[in-house]
Amino acid sequence: MRLMKKLHYLLFSATLLMGTAQAQLHVEIAGVSNNQIPVAVAAFADESVAPEQVSAVIRADLERSGVFKVIDARQAISETASIDYSAWKASGADAVVVGSVQKLADGRLAVRYKLLDTIKAGQISSLSDAVQPRSTRLQAHRIADDVYEKLTGVRGIFATRISYVGENPRDKFRYRLEVADSDGAGVQVAFMSPEPIISPSWSPDGTKVAYVSYEKKKPIIYMQDLITGQRRLISNQKGNNSSPAWSPDGSKLAISLSKDGNTEIYTVNADGSGLHRVTDNPAIDSEARFSADGQTIYFMSDRSGGPQIYKMSASGGNASRVTFNGPYNISPRISPDGKTLAFISQRNGAFSLYAMDLASGQELRLADDASEPSFSPNGKYIMYATHSGGQRSLAVVSVDGRVKQSLTTQAGNIKEPTWGPFMQ
């Protein structure tokens, strides 16, 4: 078993020890891409021995991506079964997902799958792994990821995780830093507090989340280890400590401090040492995010008179302005490939999520009533906070604006989303 797969299993087990949230997220899908790929997903042979239906999870993953037209095969088909390719092609399916689940003597489950091409009448891909029963859903997400990648050429994000802040006024510990699967299932509590928690940020290896806690009546930056449950103090300087963001190699974080009276951007090592000032300007500089190569930071500054997004070397120096449309632009987020800037812009009295092509400067409005954007690790989707039914909730939109999902819960507000990295 590969190292990162072991790490994901450890992460799953560790979060179980932190406590289970009271309610799962509910996902609703709206919109699809222009050219959906028709895929038939069969029930897996003997999948009733698993705690969850593998085929149902795969089907739900592919549907909510908006990329696939999922056809229910209405039968169980093992990966060893003989396939009538012409019949499946006639049904409209370009590809067929088949598989099986077998309970092993040691209690593990052998989950096997094949992805078949009805046009070329052959196999596209296959996977076979033995997993603990509790990891059935994770294995199904991995299979869905394989289907997504083989049919689109882009890595899937179904087996990734998200983190966000849940708020329930009726609880003693009103604020909860929670971690969940990308589809909102398997919600676990990483940290809880009677005081606000904001700005969670995943480490590049997916084992830690940095965040700001007000438990001591002022904003202090901590780092939570999701495997051990332990946390480390990152910054408790005089004044505000805010907006932690990891460097791509995980060695340091960009943070915002007002310890000298004005909010400036600093970097600090992942263990809290080595504080280094990056910006030096009479304006407020905050919300720094590293570029994909770690050489540049994008940040919000009001040095032009109102909040706009700028960029500069991660080690300091001259800054150049990036956003020019609209009087109020905040919350810069850079796509994993470094080509797209997502940000929140206030125009005509509304806060909207925009995506900018950094090469051309062309902007696309993706969603209204939005805040706190976060890219998926494959760069194809953006999660953000919004309002739904009078409560704060989460939503996901594709970078072309065609596919939208909402993630809601009946347990209270959910906000401050951050999308975790690839785990394998």
From TrEMBL:
Coiled coil: none annotated. SUPFAM superfamilies: TolB, N-terminal domain, Tricorn protease N-terminal domain. The keyword Transport does not apply. Residues 1-23 form the signal peptide. InterPro entries: 6-blade_b-propeller_TolB-like, Tol-Pal_TolB, TolB_N, WD40. Keywords: Cell cycle, Cell division, Periplasm, Signal. Residues 26-123 form the TolB N-terminal domain. Its main location: periplasm. It is found in: Periplasm. The Tol-Pal system is composed of five core proteins: the inner membrane proteins TolA, TolQ and TolR, the periplasmic protein TolB and the outer membrane protein Pal. They form a network linking the inner and outer membranes and the peptidoglycan layer. Part of the Tol-Pal system, which plays a role in outer membrane invagination during cell division and is important for maintaining outer membrane integrity. This is Tol-Pal system protein TolB. It comes from Massilia solisilvae.
